[in-house]
Amino acid sequence: MTTDNKRDLLLDVQDLTIHYVTDNGTVHAVENLNLQLGHGETLGFVGETGAGKTTTALGIMRLIPSPPGVIKSGKIIFEGEDLLSMSEADMRGVRGGRIAMIFQDPMTSLNPVMTVDKQIAEMIKLHRNVGEAESLKLAGDMLELVGIRRERMKDYPHQFSGGMKQRVVIAIALACDPGLLIADEPTTALDVTIQAQVLELMKDLKRRFAASMILITHDLGIVADICDTVAIMYAGRVVEYADKRSLYSNPAHPYTVGLFNSVPDLDSDVEELNTIPGLMPDPMELPTGCTFHPRCLRAVPECSVSKPGMIEVEPGHFVACPHAGSKRGSGV
Amino acid sequence: MAEVFFRLAKSPLAMFGLAFILLLVFVAIFADVLAPYPFQKQNLMHSFETPSASFLLGTDEFGRDILSRLIYGARVSLQVGFIAVGIALVVGGMLGALSGYYGGWIDNAIMRVMDVLLSIPQTLLAIAIAAALGPGLFNLMIAVGISAVPTYARIVRGSVLSIRGMEFIEAAKAVGSSDTRIILRHIIPNSMAPIIVQSTLGVASAILNAAGLSFIGLGIQPPYPEWGAMLSGGRQYIRDYPHLTLYPGLAIMLTILALNFLGDGLRDALDPKLKR
Q1: Per the domain annotation, does A182 fall within a domain?
Q2: How is A78-146 classified by DSSP, letter by letter?
Q3: CB-CB neighbors (< 8 A) of B167 in chain A
């Protein structure tokens, strides 16, 4: 994934490796991860629970709990600067001001004893040179922008519904006009109708603020709706990376194919839903060679020996599997 | 603040507590005007008198007016109670917040020292500190305050630990807040409930502790009146003249009761979730 250097990149993650070192062993949460994100683009980050999606996001923010988390190697180039070599004080300016994060559960990501306007104003005061009154006024503007009436700005989080809380969280994230927005499963904790509203709002605001976005999710439907490019993650590695159209019309990695096959189909009448056989490997003892080979139906003996590199199967479509077929549905 | 008071006003018990404490503060400040007699004035002709029109609460073994001594005693007791708890809360709270938030070796270092202090009975610790510093009101407050530090450090550490792991703390980090800001703006306000309750109870036990120290001569020096000292002074006459111990005892009890009511009410009033 290192070609295409001419593209004007906002974020360029190179060979990022993050481990959790515990008494019981080392957890290989993220291994040699490469990611690129251009201005205004949305990248979907898809994978099972435990694939390392959230760890990657926290790694970009440099918020990995340490100990036990260690960033072993890699570079995170954001707007031309390497975040990993920044001082903690500079990093605080980046968090919120230039990279904002939306957390998974709006029920717990707001401070329960602070009114919402103060929580938005806190973000504004930290990154902009404005006074108390001005920041509260801007906080009210942000609330109106996400569709909450200004009269409710003095309310506490528990007085809002789940969807409204997530709107408040979005208002906080966008309050300082960040270049990059990282959304960690922003709709998982919401029910389906509210999900659609919140996603629509995020799409709209992302366009208005001209921000780039990394959307972490395990819902392929959401990815199809919002994202430009998609990275499929499995056991700490990106196994497939492509623009949305190419990935959906032509999934190449056996794992991606398996994911698509497990999406229920309304038209066909089946007894049982399709699944990928087996479970995610224990991240402390990853299989040798390709980490997916124990579950892969196309595996050949050499898969357990050598780690596959990235192959470009189509322009801009990379796969970490030498046997990646181009025919959808073959194999798995 | 007005909102908190409004909510506090809905609880009659809390209002009683607040009114009683305010009354005490008023009495303590204007003791010189309110007390019918000077606190040290002896009148051996009138010793051990039961309550009457001229001595509303009676007199003690030297014929001193008990009401006047209670009024002056309020000064000492309130000062000791609030300032000692203030010292304990600031020092203990800071230590507890640091050790709960950072964990690791900082936590270990601070909490092991606190454990050592906790292993010494609080009264004994206060006696040791007061003996080292010498008698006097200010030293009394320091002794009582320092001896209560480990209790507060433990409580604050516990609540900080439980709040620290919550997602909104991570969210606060993600917006670029510094550690100091996270502790002061997010963690402390969320851990107020147990701290407020402990503090109001703490004022009460600080008053009792100070009384104990006065009794063994390490606190307030006679003839200045102090409730605890009055209580222990009247102890030997309790069979024949119970009013010598009854009134100081009542004063201590009512103050502590009022503080507890107020503390309970404050805890509820400060919790936005209970707002109706």
Answers
A1: yes
A2: ETTEEGGGS-HHHHHHHBTTTEEEE-S-TTTSS-TTS-HHHHHHHHHHHHS---HHHHHHHHHHHHHHT
A3: 103-105, 108-109
pLDDT tens string B9-38? 888 898 999 999 999 999 989 888 888 888
C-alpha to C-alpha distance for A210 and A206, rounded to whole angstroms: 6
Asked if the structure places residue A128 within a domain, the reply is yes
Backbone angles phi, psi at A121, to 5 degrees: -65, -30
Q: Which of A108, A111, A172 sits opposite B186 (nearest CB)?
A: A111
Residue A106 lies in a domain: yes
Q: How many A-B residue pairs are in contact by the CB < 8 A criterion? A: 71
- Residue A21 sits at the vertex; the CA angle it makes with A20 and A25, to the nearest 5 degrees, is 110
Rg (C-alpha) for chain A, rounded Å, is 21
**Could you tell me the pTM of the whole model?**
0.76
What total of structural domains would you count in chain A? 1
How buried is residue B98: exposed, middle or buried, by Cβ count under 10 Å (0-12/13-18/19+)?
buried
Of A103, A113, A126, the CB nearest to B272: A113
| Beta strand A229-234 pairing with A212-217 | unpaired
Strand ranges for A147-290 from DSSP E = 180-184, 212-217, 229-234, 237-243
Is A316 a domain residue? no
B238-261 pLDDT, tens per residue? 888 888 889 988 998 898 889 888
Q: What is the CATH number of the domain that holds B185?
A: 1.10.3720.10
